[in-house]
């Protein structure tokens, strides 16, 4: 069986090889989207008996194509949302840096005497002209 995220519920109809009630899960793999199956309630643990059986028949090709398309579309929306969140975070940081720069510049202008500031700017202009 392919690895997948699956929804699950305990089924009292089928019993696995351990004698425990099997768990009904839903496969969300590309090969079996939305297809239900039963497995051991201890699946993923060392004591699992590896019981497995399908509840549903194999999906029709058209059904698989539609479900997989919807799943991809849903995943793309999640990716777009992540991109937007990263962009918002970037802009917040950029705005913070800009504001911090403006504060530092304002403090610099208050601390440094006018004649020293003029000399610094002239020196930068001379260096730039070279």
TrEMBL record:
It holds the Pfam family Zn_ribbon_GRF. Residues 16-58 form the GRF-type domain. The keyword Cell membrane does not apply. Keywords: Membrane, Metal-binding, Transmembrane, Transmembrane helix, Zinc, Zinc-finger. GO terms for molecular function: zinc ion binding. PROSITE patterns: ZF_GRF (PS51999). It comes from the Eukaryota. The chain crosses the membrane at residues 93-111. This is GRF-type domain-containing protein. It comes from Forsythia ovata.
